[in-house]
Amino acid sequence: MPTAEDILNREVARVNLHLPAFRPTLSRLLAEEEPRVKLRDGSYHYFKRSELEYLASLLEEEETERLKVPIVLEISTVYRGYFRVRGAVEVKVIDKILGTYDILEEKSEELYPRYLLPKIRRALPTTTTYAFIAE
Known about the structure:
Elements: H1 4-15, H2 26-31, E1 36-38, E2 44-46, H3 49-57, E3 71-76, E4 82-86, H4 88-98, E5 109-113, H5 117-123, E6 128-133
Parallel strand pairs: 3-6
Antiparallel strand pairs: 1-2, 3-4, 4-5
InterPro entries: UPF0216 (IPR002746)
Protein name: UPF0216 protein A3L08_02700
Pfam families: DUF61
């Protein structure tokens, strides 16, 4: 008989079927004629080219090789009222959108208050996605 933890983990996996099976780099997507990514459920998610170009405008050229798209906004059971972003380039993009970027501070992970989610999703509707994490 499955434990409560097994059931929870299966449910979280089901809720996250909208996540990509593989996250390509921004530079790779910009080079594609029809930028898209295959999702875990087998369907495709398409990116707006104008949004990809906006992301590129926020970064140095070599950073477009490191930015994985879509940027994952992690909703966790541990950090109530906050969401997490991982990756130095990903955090830089989010900080620039929020107007909190500090050139002297390079972070590889950051927690943000959840009330900022709508601002980020309005700016990057096709290049961000939610992931639900049970920790």
